[in-house]
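Saturday, quiet lab. Running sequence design on the structure tokens for the scaffold JK sent over.
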């Protein structure tokens, strides 16, 4: 694995280095709980971190997801927090093959925008769920032909209701395969317009 000097190693539980398991390094995989930007109303005047966060979000809103390029890493909710010159990201699910590509693309965009000193940390807690996909992201998925997961669906991941056809809007659909073009999507078919489509699986 290659990484730039400013990019920390991804810290999946199974590949963590011993030093990452020490108590003082727990923050490496956890978004800081008391950072100014997690305040209930972060838009208080003089919150420099809020301005920094907005600039970073704007930059990263142009970084597409490598597997679903119609949505950005911000749309998907992968970008979690910016605090003290550290960007926290959470993979859509541990072991997602796109994770390394996502971190590399984010690094490249930050460098190009003058944020070469910003470090990237992977936060695994709390885990990402499909509820983190923004409303804008859901609309982009639908327009792209992928049925977005309904809000709150993460709680019902084991008993998904029928997906809504992204083309004709029909609920008269069936799942053909649990795995579509990528592991995070299922292949479905509309029984009205007869078109097959991908559904973003809930988790
Ligand atoms: Zn249809």
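Result came back. Writing it out in full:
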């Amino acid at each position: 694995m290659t990484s730039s000097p400013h990019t920390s190693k991804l810290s999946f539980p199974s590949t963590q280095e011993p030093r990452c398991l020490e108590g003082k390094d727990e923050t490496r995989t956890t978004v800081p709980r008391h950072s100014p930007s997690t305040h209930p109303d972060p838009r208080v005047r003089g919150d420099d971190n809020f301005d920094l966060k907005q600039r970073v979000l704007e930059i990263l809103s142009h970084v597409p997801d490598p597997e679903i390029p119609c949505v950005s890493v911000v749309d998907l909710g992968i970008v979690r927090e910016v605090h003290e010159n550290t960007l926290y990201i959470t993979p859509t699910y541990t072991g997602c093959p796109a994770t390394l590509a996502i971190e590399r693309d984010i690094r490249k965009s930050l460098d190009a925008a003058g944020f070469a000193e910003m470090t990237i940390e992977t936060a695994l807690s709390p885990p990402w769920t499909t509820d983190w996909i923004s409303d804008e992201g859901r609309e982009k998925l639908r327009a792209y032909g992928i049925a977005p997961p309904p809000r709150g669906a993460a709680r019902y991941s084991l008993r998904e209701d029928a997906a809504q056809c992204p083309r004709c809007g029909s609920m008269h659909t069936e799942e053909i395969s649990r795995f579509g073009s990528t592991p995070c999507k299922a292949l479905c078919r509309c029984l009205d317009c007869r078109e097959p489509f991908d559904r973003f699986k809930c988790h």
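Notes for JK: The first strand starts at residue 79 and ends at 83. The chain has three helices and seven strands. Ask whether to fix the surface positions before the next round.
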